[in-house]
Amino acid sequence: MTPTLVQHRPHASSTSPSPAETCARARDWAEIQERMLVPLYEAVYERLEVGSGTRLLGLDCGSGLALLIAAARGARVTGVDTDRERLALARERMAPEAGAPPRDVELTEGHAAAVADAERGPYNLITAFQPIGCAAGDSEGLGPAVAAAVELAERGSVVVLTGWGPPERCATSGVLRVAGRLTERLRTGGWRPALRDDLEDVAAQAGLKPDGSGRVACPFGYADMESAVRGLLSTGLYAAAVRATDQLQVEKEIREALHAHRRRDGTVWMPNVFRYLIARTR
User: Fold this and answer.
1) Cα gap 33→222, rounded to integer Å
2) Which residue among 28, 129, 217, 241 is least crowded, i.e. fewest CB within 10 A of its CB?
3) Class of residue 187 by CB neighbours under 10 A (exposed 0-12, middle 13-18, buried 19+)
């Protein structure tokens, strides 16, 4: 599935984002960036035959696009996230007045423990669709989070972990290196290349048994340079770089890195490959 190219709208920049800018960043994720991962969601759901018998718990569900796709296939879905702004957008998407048909989706702010007493479990599918393997330390909290979620699942349930593919297969890696370069002097945060066993290491920490894997092409396509900058900033992968320098400097360097991927019609296109690991609870 080819990502839709989205027109941009200008936004202000500052070193420390205001609450309004934080909300705008979450909306940029929902309107621009999140859809780039749709091929990953669909490939996983197709392989696992997600449908009416699926009781899914989505970790870091963001603004809920992956949940909507699963619900459209008939799954009963619960999503948790600590990002209040993204979760608010997910609720907005799924509200009856949004004009969409009713979905069997429940959203909760917090971690997996926040739904421990809900009557929607036990779950037979847990997904962690926020890709790891491109920012220093981005997998450190995932193992414990998955382990906590596993307590709410049936024995033998499927857990899906996702991550960035090899840097040589991800054109966006070169643009993300900007984050690493800008934070190098602070020796904190920033970009780092994806490692071959990132997902397997998380599975081991959570006590899971690997049971297959796959790779999916997820090109990042944007209508113009400004949409590309806003979409990439919305991932949160540049947050440490903004703290180390300032918003304007980060935006400037992202634009410079994106020039190699700008096409004659002004659109920006970056082929990428993402990886997923299927594991099972013991």
Assistant:
1) 9
2) 217
3) exposed
Q: Assess contact for 27 and 89: CB atoms under 8 A.
A: yes
Give 119's contacts (C-beta < 8 A, 6+ positions apart): none
Structural domains of the chain, with CATH: 19-280 (3.40.50.150)
| Angle, in degrees to the nearest 10, between helices 225-233 and 247-258 | 120
| Cα Rg, the chain, nearest whole Å | 18
Please, which residues have CB within 8 angstroms of residue 137's CB and are 6 or more apart in sequence?
189
Listed in order, strand segments (DSSP E) in the chain are: 55-59, 76-81, 105-109, 123-132, 153-164, 209-217, 220-222, 268-270, 273-280
Closest CA to 208 of 259, 145, 279: 279
Tokens of 132: 């790891």
**φ/ψ (deg, to 5) at 27:** -70, -35
111/109 Cα distance (integer angstroms): 7
pLDDT in tens, 208-258: 999 999 999 999 999 999 999 999 999 999 988 888 888 999 999 999 999
pLDDT in tens, 173-210: 999 988 888 776 555 556 666 677 899 999 999 999 99
**φ and ψ of 74, to 5 deg:** 105, 0
Give which of 251, 247, 252, 231 is closest to 3, Cα–Cα.
231
125 contacts 57 by C-beta, under 8 angstroms: yes
For residue 162, what are the β-bridge partners? 276
pTM (global) more than 0.85: yes
Distances (CA, A) of 101 to 90, 133, 260, 270: 15, 36, 42, 34
CA-CA distance, 213 to 251, in Å (whole number)?
35
Distance CA 145, CA 106 (A): 19
